[in-house]
Amino acid sequence: MDSQPYQLASRDADLRTVSFDYAVEPTLLLDPDADQIVDANPAACALLGYDRVLLRQTRISALHPGQVPALIVFTQAVLDKGAWWTPTLTPRHATGETLRLEYAGSAVPQGERALLLLTMSDLDARRRRGVDGAAEDHMRSGLAAWQRVERVFQDIERENQLILRAAGEGIYGVNAEGKTTFVNPAAERMLGWSAEELVGKAIHPIMHHSHADGSHYPDHDCPIYAAFRDGAVHNVDNEVFWRKDGSKVWVEYTSTPIRDRSMVIGAVIVFRDVSARRAADEKLHAALAEVDRLRERLELENAYLQEEIRIETNPRGIIGQSQAIQQTLRQVKLVAPTTAAVMITGESGTGKELIARAIHEASARRDRPLIRVNCAAIPRELFESEFFGHVRGAFTGAVRDRIGRFELASGGTLFLDEVGEIPLELQGKLLRVLQEGNFERVGEERTRAVDVRVIAATNRNLKQEVARGKFREDLYFRLNVFPVESVPLRERREDIPLLAQHFLMSEKLRSDLRLSEGDARKLARYDWPGNVRELQNVIERAVILAQNGRLRIDLPDAPGPHVAAASPGRARADARPAVMTSAELRDLERSNIQAALLACNGKVFGPGGAAELLDLKPTTLASRMKVLGIAGARSGQAAG
Fold first, then answer.
1. Model's pTM, two decimal places?
2. In the chain, how many domains are there?
3. How many CB atoms lie within 10 A of CB 488?
4. Could you tell me the residue range of the domain that residue 599 belongs to?
5. pLDDT at residue number 160
6. 269 Cβ contact partners less than 8 Å away, ≥ 6 residues apart
7. In this structure, is residue 409 part of a structural domain?
């Protein structure tokens, strides 16, 4: 289009211009070929939000972004038919809002060109005019019509009230200022507030002011108020409302915005009391937590048991090449596949537990635990509970049920170390379990079945104990089905260098030191009254005292009472070790413990205590001191 202004052909151009400017309907004059708005009347400027000059500079397509195809179709229809209308075109307001309009267009011939006169009707305004017209008709109908309309609204209000009163959920409304507009009876019952106390007041400070822990709940964080700020529905399932009496009620609620002509004017809140459900959930969670705690405890116990099985010295690799060790290994191989009871005898420190583990690992029960019971460390009054377990309240201090060692070892192996220490009155119950395979927990009448293989060990002469009436003969024969002797170290001296080197290379020491031939000869000459346990302690001490890459073997100057002049590579078959009576052994053990207490200034437990010096568990040492009649530590010296 050229820059020449358009000249209307009619001589009544001025009159037409006045009609165009003062038309009630918003009207545009368009040049479709040039994609240009030629003119716009004030009503069109007001509708679209642009001033007249700006509209004259605006392209038609720019006013209808993304609608060019529909705009072309409408224009062609007007030019072909002379007039056409459409409600599909939605121009954009100056604020960016999309307008819902109806276009009515007519062709205006202008020389060789054809302009388009476009009248725009606001559909929303048309609807409002229709409502106003209907209201005016009702007003003209007189009093009777008004009363009919009033009754209709009263019926609707009554029905709404019935619905609100019948609803089981609490329902209340708030306006855009956060003030209560209505409250139903269910909400009154649940909260203790009456509708008169709440309507017209800001409800958040009354019943939603704090979190469950009592901390302040700012109203700008409240999802109920957020509903009429952002116009979105808010669902909440873990908050509290506060009752009139100050108590809290756990609720889940939905806050839904209320709109009037696209404007949010408030919100309606529907809530229900979930306190009972929450209490049930808390009980369930507590129960699940208890299950998790028990499972964790069992896992820890299992890990402990597995660690007990897999001690540093592998039971399948007993160290030694002597004939005595080979004989022991042959016995292990013979008895392991069976379920026979085994009695392992021998001096302390000779590795009786190691033999028991070897039997268990070679048996069909290897996948179940080997449970070790140190009978010398259990107080007399707790033997039955330790073996068979107890139920809650069975005796003072029994605050919960406890599983016994027999039940824990079911399907596996029970190793009774120091079996000679079992009280005589309990031996009969132990015999019953071995014979019948069932028992009762302390304080319980229910009989439980158990499948346990028993391996016993002792450093006592149980035949003499039977003769003295301190051990049941029938129990002795039940346990002594397959005897295995754990040979003392002095009778297999050729194994001493192998054992010493094994201890040097163990994970505990991780030493790169090695035994010299002189060290090996020195170790082989010693009698080792403490057997393998004493050898291990000597090696650890030698590593600590080592200087310049050389071990310092620290042994007593005087040889033991059983030393024999044998080479390290060959045991003496004609060795005649002196035999000590049980009383002599007790006197020797008593003297040894008293010497340890003297060296530790009377301290029994903890670092630097006698238990550590003797390489005994504190409970074991305490039990032996009690049996031997040795007084306890002085006050203030037993802690460690």
1. 0.44
2. 4
3. 21
4. 582-628
5. 56
6. 170, 171, 172, 173, 174, 224, 253, 254, 255, 256
7. yes
